[in-house]
Amino acid sequence: MFDSGYLASLGISADLAVYYVKANWLTRLSRGVFCRANDALDLYACLQFLQSRVSGLHVAGMSALSWHGLRQYVSPKPVVHLFGHESAKMPDWFVQRFPSVYRRKRLFDESPRSLMAVSTFGQQAFAPLVSEPERAFLEMLSEVGGKQALQEAREIAESAYALRSETLLVLLKACTNVKTIRICMQLGREVQLPWYTKIAPELQAHLSSSP
Asked: Which residues have CB under 8 Å from 3's CB, separation 6+?
């Protein structure tokens, strides 16, 4: 994956790029975006390319949970759930190859250049940014009442007993969505998850002192 700016840095002008496309040396995916002809696009590499263009873009919510092995049901046609900090539309060349849903969502008080509990996934050269399990869990809960069924969220919570309490507490303190906090604590209490008893007193104190 590369754009016209990268080609220009190699001394390849726009006219020469057009020639390469006509000669079937390059494939034009969209205006100013190319790949080598006959190359099969890799999801990780495509995500990393898009992350350089969309502020705060990362694999989020249900997809991130699934990637971390915390999903109850495996869909035969999985959709990649993407969150970001700005209004954007995933390009057709990406969506056609990798069914996906993008949402502009600012669930935490954070900078898009320094996302909380988001890290590169795996050791591959083009590893994309993916929510860590604790953030993905809260992102999934933020969808309850809309695209996410509460019953499925409860079933996922039952398997999320190993979430890191320290990380979850930091995220909950920075969470700007009251509904997400409430559902998280409700499920933690009802399912009797280990992290709930560790974070409940401090979170309650924090919420009580917040303006």
From this structure: 32, 33, 34
